[in-house]
Design a protein that fits this description.
- It contains 8 helices and 4 strands.
- The chain is mostly helical.
- The strands form 2 sheets. Strands 1-2 form a two-stranded antiparallel ribbon. It has a two-stranded antiparallel sheet with strand order 3-4.
- Strand 1 and strand 2 form a beta hairpin.
């Protein structure tokens, strides 16, 4: 089997694989191979193996079995699934930034071994909320966002005016997040051994 056919088989399988995995697990950018199966498969957490990249290329619904209810819970609040991102984009992204700040605060907190489990649970809960929101944004754009005809002279409904502005709003919000978080290359390196040594000294 040549390389092209091997990759084709991998991507074909990955399309079904994503539907069987936990949708709230955010894929990562990784070309590393999984040790299982003799190291012949990409990591199950990568975009290639999860099927997320292929669904994007084929213009398929990112999460066909999720966000199908009339309302969706994001950051502990119920929102109308089909309109929330248009009507409340500023509020949602402010809540998102607040969660990122809470996560950053947890990372900076010094603790002993007895609190590690509690911190991990809190951090994982925050992460899942953020991932759910990002998935919702992706699904909303695919399912509900309608491109307005700029040359049309028909009066628009107030919602349609907000909807037409959403792409620009999303770009501004994502740019603001980039400024808040910083580039990946600028993030500090976290060495688990340093954390362990600090706690061993306390013990």
């Amino acid at each position: 089997m040549d390389i092209c056919s091997a990759v084709s088989t991998l991507l074909t399988d990955s399309l079904e694989l994503e539907l069987e995995t936990e949708w709230c697990n955010l894929p990562c950018f990784s070309c590393a191979f999984d040790n299982r199966g003799g190291g012949k498969h990409f990591s199950g957490e990568s975009y290639l193996s999860s099927g997320a990249l292929k669904r994007l290329i084929l213009n398929l619904d990112p999460l066909p079995t999720n966000f199908e209810e009339d309302t969706v819970e994001i950051f502990g609040i119920q929102w109308v699934t089909e309109t929330a991102l248009v009507n409340s984009s500023k509020v949602l992204f402010n809540l998102f930034r607040q969660q990122l700040y809470n996560l950053e605060t947890l990372l900076q907190a010094s603790c002993d071994f007895g609190k590690i489990s509690t911190l991990h649970c809190k951090a994982d809960s925050i992460r899942q909320q953020c991932v759910t929101f990002l998935h919702y944004v992706k699904v909303f754009i695919f399912r509900f966002l309608k491109v307005q005809n700029a040359e049309s002279h028909v009066p628009l409904h107030p919602y349609e005016i907000l909807e037409a502005q959403l792409p620009s709003v999303l770009i501004d919000e994502l740019h603001g997040l980039l400024l808040y978080i910083g580039h990946l290359s600028e993030l500090p390196n976290i060495n688990p051994e340093t954390f362990e040594n600090q706690n061993q000294i306390k013990v």
